[in-house]
Specification:
With 185 residues, this protein is an alpha+beta fold. Helix content is 22%, strand content 34%. The protein has a single domain (38-178), classed as tt1808, chain A, CATH 3.90.1570.
């Protein structure tokens, strides 16, 4: 997450950001420039999108990657690395979604603290959210949080289980497939 640039209303942010060549997140009136990721980050996102897309074919659910936004009330508009929505009300030209069932963040050293704390707290406000996933390409750690109705979360460290298991969409992805291409030049 970059440094805040200016204070805007949500409507002003959406109008302003649509004209920017870079991606900017919005949180409580402040906008933050999104920084580019490293090779491992991009490789994990590409692997996720391929497997999610194949898994979700012929279902009402669709995966999206880092160029689509998730809006959380009037408070925030964020760019998750990957998310899945099963809400059919969106048209083909939508760029802002409000009902993800899964949000996945691929961690980097510069965003890890934010993804684990403030960003997670914001996403937990989404009534649709069933799973929040943190993937660390450097350590190969995979953590899944499942929000409960009482606002607590079930934490599952799937790093040693050999697969990423997403109950909300019935996905079981071997970690070898998730991290494929990470060790090649």
């Amino acid at each position: 997450m970059g440094h805040p640039q200016q204070r805007l209303s949500l409507a002003d942010y959406l109008a302003w950001e649509s004209e920017q060549p870079e991606r900017w997140e919005f949180c409580r009136g402040e906008v933050f420039a999104m920084v580019g990721g490293r090779r491992g980050h991009g490789r994990v996102i590409a692997n996720l999108m391929r497997h999610l897309g194949n898994h979700l074919d012929d279902t009402p659910c669709q995966p999206f990657s880092e160029n689509m936004k998730v809006q959380v009330g009037e408070e925030a508009v964020l760019y998750p690395d990957v998310f899945v929505t099963c809400d059919a009300r969106y048209s083909a030209d939508e760029t802002v979604f409000t009902a993800p069932v899964v949000v996945i963040e691929v961690l980097s050293p510069s965003t890890q603290r934010y993804d684990r704390s403030e960003k997670f707290a914001i996403y937990r406000r989404l009534a649709s959210l069933r799973e929040y996933v943190l993937i660390d390409p450097d350590t190969r750690r995979v953590e899944v949080y499942r929000p409960n109705p009482d606002r607590s979360c079930l934490y599952i460290d799937q790093s040693e289980q050999g697969e990423l298991a997403l109950e909300s969409i019935g996905l079981r992805l071997p970690l070898d497939s998730l991290f494929k291409g990470m060790d090649s030049a």
